[in-house]
């Protein structure tokens, strides 16, 4: 049995006493086990980070950027093997695994521009002989806690920015697919990153709590489900840390009567079922406006869903692969049953799906519900599987209210040819990321990623300038260089520049 362990700066190991199974979702077999770390393991990583961080912070930003350039090159060189490793633990198809890596790499590309980004602000002559300037300095030791569904992209969202600005970063990846994060750390070392600036500690709640309580860790970036995000936010803030904690989602796609329905169905198939629906920016709820739109959409959706190919993650023809674990498959299927019990109309049932030759794999067939009502629990909660729910709205205002009033507010999309409706929707919807005829509106790396309401706790987004802000503290200097002449009178009133 392959053991997956921590990645410490000094290359040492730390034998675990508790383990978690890592599955091959295609076959259902246990393929490895990951050792679950303790607070003592974290102490070791922190000590190594503390020894390395001051020199890294003092390294000029161009040199820090060169490590990022080299890392980008190495990721590109290793793309195939990384994608296969990722796919083998997560279950997403290879092309999608490459997308996962590529979207993270785009944040590394953003981090290559760090010398420009860190230039700060300067005002000459803010008062008589007085200049004011600001600088952004690293926080010191920071940590990231990441979910299973993007084991490459989300760690890179965090460490790309955190390291480029001069921090040491400790990553606690999901225990369900922990191999790719370790591989990323190895490649950063190969790219020339000094030992101690990126380490990986493996674990579960015990390690998360140790991170949240550790006095030497200044900031924690978390991505995962909302209840845990909220817990991480509260505990981290109570310990005096800066915390950003992204949570779950239930993204809606509003379909206006004038939308190009063939395009919508095409977009929905990918956005609802791609990666087996295990994306925080998946589109699991579609809201056609008007019954005529709903009926036309449903008629086109059924054959499109029936044509989807579910296969092993290495099948180049498959649209999506298995879900991550048997427990997650059972949870998705129980939500489908819940929808039936609540009175929604089950149009396509993906339960009981098996793939010949892979009967024990964690596959769930594509599922479609119609007549889903906002009062249903299966609508209110995140299912995180290949399940699409149609919620019919009578008009634009009713459609706008659905995502706006939902507990989650990560992403939303509107499909229309009407610019006025789209503009109105984007301005008024109570959700953090909006797509206009774009089903998965994940912002590019130099913009920022973050939802609203229970989809994110804290006040800064991931990557882009918000990421820079999160992983640095600003220092503002007011300077005067008197010429030694008239020293003037002491000032007993608050200085003004008047
Ligand atoms: P999860 O909440 O189960 O796990 C996330 C992290 O928290 C993991 O590292 C895990 O080890 C840790 N953890 C798990 N249980 C814990 C506990 N009781 N106490 C402390 N830490 C704990 O999430 P997941 O299933 O790995 O990922 C899927 C979820 O993440 C979905 O809800 C999805 O919407 C969300 N997600 C959100 C975003 C976003 O940016 N908003 C992006 C990706 C995924």
UniProtKB/TrEMBL annotation:
User: What are the UniProt keywords, alphabetically?
Assistant: NAD, Oxidoreductase
**First-level EC class:** oxidoreductase
Domain Aldehyde dehydrogenase: from-to ranges: 20-477
Q: Pfam families this protein is in?
A: Aldedh
Q: Does the keyword Hydrolase apply?
A: no
User: What GO terms in the biological process aspect are recorded for it?
Assistant: L-valine catabolic process; thymine catabolic process
Q: What is its EC number?
A: 1.2.1.27
Highest taxon, organism lineage:
Bacteria
The molecular function terms in GO held by this entry are: methylmalonate-semialdehyde dehydrogenase (acylating, NAD) activity
PANTHER family tied to this protein: MALONATE-SEMIALDEHYDE DEHYDROGENASE (PTHR43866)
What is the designated name of this protein? methylmalonate-semialdehyde dehydrogenase (CoA acylating)
